[in-house]
Amino acid sequence: MTSGSGSGGAPRGGIDLGGTKIQAVVVDERQIVLGEARHPTPTEGGPADVAAAMSAAMTEAAGLAGVRTDALAGVGVGSPGDVDAQHGTVTAARNLPDWEGEFALGDALEKALGSPARLGNDVQVATDAEFELGAGRPYRSVLGVFWGTGVGGGIVLEGRPWVGRGAGGEIGHVVVRIGGELCGCGRRGCLEAYAGRAAMERRARQRHKKGAKTELFKIMEERGRSRLMSGIWERALKRDDPLAVELIDDAIEALGAGVASVQNVLDVEAIIIGGGLGIRLGDPYARRIGDAMLPHLFDDLHPPAIHVAELGDLGGAIGAALLAVPASQPAV
Ligand SMILES: [Zn+2]
User: Fold this and answer.
1) Which of 197, 213, 226, 298 is the most buried (most CB within 10 A)?
2) Does 88 have pLDDT greater than 90?
């Protein structure tokens, strides 16, 4: 079946550009997924190679949805790095190969796909998706916390996304311990230095080398992986692996302090926990983060609601599709 749209809204594309995978979706006007494709993010080359892989993923998703990419109303992209939505450029996407300088990602995609492309910040786009279509629907103000390789944050206040001057929402770099662990950003004591999966893996490797008992790396090898992906942490926790339990406990304590500190400033109605670890570990761990927040909450009589992101792994891409210009709205 091709699209069932009777109201004239052409399907739209959405691409979530991650450090390890590129997720593309084609959705109809009600954001129902008509086709989706996932490709690995190139680890070599440069921005042009990443753009080519994004186009390939989008083309495959469109094929599965029974549309040509040049028939899409538009393609939205959730990107890491510094995103200039107005000029369609991305700078300093450091998880991606050789992407320190500015690259005109929007132009490259428009040329390859034949439809207009719009860029947004990956975490904000995923938060907007949860706000519009997922766990955030009942609320006017939410904080999205994306617990994965790093810890990303997205803010919606009174129904509108808040990115400050462009760098807002960086909850991963809220300080949870002055003079604490070194963070990937070069500063010390950030939330991400305790709760980001990359930092947790670094600590796990150090402790393992020093003889700490753990099955984390055995599970990693069994799964044919070279990194401690979220599913590996989940498995180790199920086996009560002592090192996994300890590092996850530390992460939850840090998340409690960091998220509560932001809540003390914003006082949003709900916190939505997403990201690879957040989604994998699900409700019991989201509740533990809520409990870990309590000692740090100024208004501890009225804690915010805590939810796990509902849109799961496709949330980023569906959110990106929300950026694409709807047929009924003229471009700015
Ligand atoms: Zn940091």
Assistant:
1) 197
2) yes
- Domain 138-310: which topology? Nucleotidyltransferase; domain 5 (3.30.420)
Question: Tokens 């949330």 — which residue?
Answer: 315
Q: Which among 184, 189, 134, 139 is positioned nearest to 160, based on CA atoms?
A: 139
* Ligand 1 centroid, distance to 145 Cα (angstroms): 15
Q: Cα-flanking dihedrals φ and ψ of residue 36, to 5°?
A: -150, 150
Spacing, Cα 169 to ligand 1 middle (Å)? 13
Residue located via tokens 């990693």: 220
User: What pLDDT was estimated at residue 59?
Assistant: 98
Q: What's the one-letter identity of residue 28? A: D
CATH for 12-125+314-322 is 3.30.420.40
Which H/E stretch holds residue 123? helix 122-133
Distance, CA of 207 to CA of 205 (rounded, Å): 5
Residue 270 CA to ligand 1 center (angstroms) comes to 24
**Global confidence as pTM:** 0.88
Find the mean pLDDT for residues 217-223: 96
On whether the CB atoms of residues 19 and 80 are closer than 8 A, the answer is yes
The CA 198 to ligand 1 mean position distance, Å, reads: 12
What CA–CA distance (Å, rounded) separates 14 from 46? 21
Q: Which one-letter amino acid corresponds to residue 95?
A: N
The span from the CA of 77 to the CA of 51, in Å, is 11
Distance separating alpha carbons of residues 6 and 48, to the nearest angstrom: 37
Query: What value does the mean pLDDT take over residues 171-193?
Result: 96
Q: How far is the CA of 83 from the centre of ligand 1 (A)?
A: 19
Q: Do domains 12-125+314-322 and 138-310 have the same CATH topology?
A: yes
Q: What is the mean pLDDT of residues 252-260?
A: 98
| Per-residue pLDDT at 326 | 52
